Amino acid sequence: MTAALSAPARANTAPRQIRWLLRVHRPALCAWTVLVVGLAATLLWLWGPLTDAAATGWHQYHARCWRLTPCRYDQDAILRYKDLHQYTTVAVLAVPFLAAAWAGAALTGREVETGTARLSWTQTVSPVRWLATRLTVPALLVTAGTGLLALLHHVVWSAGYHRIDSVKPWDDVPTFYSGGPIVAGLALAGLVLGALIGLLLGRSLLALCSSALAVAPLWIAVHMTLPHLWPVATSVSGRRASPSYSGIKVAEGIVTSSGAHQPTSACTVDISPGCQALNDRRGAVGFYTDYHPYSHYWPLQLATTGALLALAALLAGLALWLVRRRTTGGRAGGTAALGGGAGTEAGTGAGAGAAV
């Protein structure tokens, strides 16, 4: 076994590890660069020429086609804007799934499966520093790229809102998630989650599928938690009307004679004699709706992003603890191996140790 590295040598391993990481994962880096640059260029095109052309087309439509007579307007510009806006939205929302799948398959799963990770630990760098390098560099690239795309998507939405009829409102689910820092937080959490799954499974293909699928329940949990991360606004009405609101509805129900709000999802307005009789028995004097208006857009985005960053830090700490625990156990027992590929990896690690 090689002797322990000196302090200067250990200090120089970090830059070498980063260079080696970028060289080994150069295809993924190139693909990520092409994706970010291509989407950014498309979003800039949408923001400028396509927004103006589509807005002009809609103006022509409203000015000339309000009667049942033949009219001409730039329908091609409207359809082109609509299609590209939908495609870029889907592409931005797909980034967390891509980051998780790549991290599980290539960042940790493949190196554990082939034994490359254990070879690095015995010759050049400690397991904890090895994992920290693999998480830090991709995390910076993924977060910066996704944040840029989300910013451009929000700028495109802002330029077309109220000018183009096909632009969705701010509380539309795809529009909300693709136009703020939440999607960058999801991409970072997905990256760390994928790396952790790769360490646990130790099989690149299995980790790829599992990591991508794991982002779906994460996103569902975020969607269910998000409305409760910021205080809601409340709209109240009497029995003869329903509360007026605009935004993300959180809860609704009846207002009792004591002023208490009683949540319910049935008969929140007297739309029928049956509902009227039910609300009479409930003692309802009005109705209420808890919701988030547009002024809560950025507080919701930032609060949810903060929660995702905390989750990513927790997952990273769990992955570091897992590596430290398993490698310490492996040194004590002499036979432990990371991941599920114990047989092939243990043999590869033993051969590498003998060669050293």
Estimate nothing, just give the exact number of structural domains. Answer: 2
Order of helices and strands: HHHHHHHHEEEHEHH
Described by strand count, sense and barrel closure, the largest sheet is: 4 strands, antiparallel
Shape: flat
Organism: Streptomyces cinerochromogenes
Protein name: ABC transporter permease
Transmembrane segments: 29-48, 87-109, 130-156, 176-198, 205-226, 300-323
Keywords: Membrane, Transmembrane, Transmembrane helix
How would you describe this structure to a colleague?
The structure is a single chain. With 356 residues, the chain is of the alpha+beta class. It has 2 domains: 7-228 and 297-355; 248-292, no CATH class. Helices cover 70% and strands 8% of the residues. It is built from 11 helices and 4 strands. The chain has helices at 7-24, 26-64, 75-114, 116-123, 127-160, 173-178, 182-201, 204-225, 273-282, 297-333, 342-355; strands spanning 233-238, 248-256, 261-263, 284-292. Strands 1-4-2-3 form a 4-stranded antiparallel sheet. A hairpin with a 4-residue loop joins strand 2 (248-256) and strand 3 (261-263). Helix 1 packs across helix 5 (127-160). It starts with 6 loop residues before the first helix and ends with a helix. This is ABC transporter permease. It comes from Streptomyces cinerochromogenes.
Keywords:
ABC transporter permease; 2 domains; 356 residues; transmembrane; single chain; flat; 4-stranded antiparallel β-sheet; alpha+beta; membrane; transmembrane helix
